[in-house]
Design goal:
By secondary structure, the protein is mostly helical. It contains 2 helices and no strands. The longest helix is centred in the first third of the chain and has 29 residues.
Amino acid sequence: MKTENKTVMVVIRMCLALAGLSFIVLSMVKDQTTPYLTIGLAFIAAANIFNAKCMFNKKGKIDGSGKDRSIS
């Protein structure tokens, strides 16, 4: 169950990031920055916030999965 939960979180983060990148590329292709660039940047920011939220547990410490590269 825990592995499935992490997989779902990774898929959500990647979808948000991919949506953000596609809107940014769309703003370059259409040469129109007003709606597309801001939407793309908002998706990228949401993906970053979601990534930071998933990386830390409820106590504010890293979850101990070895992502922080610490040796204990």
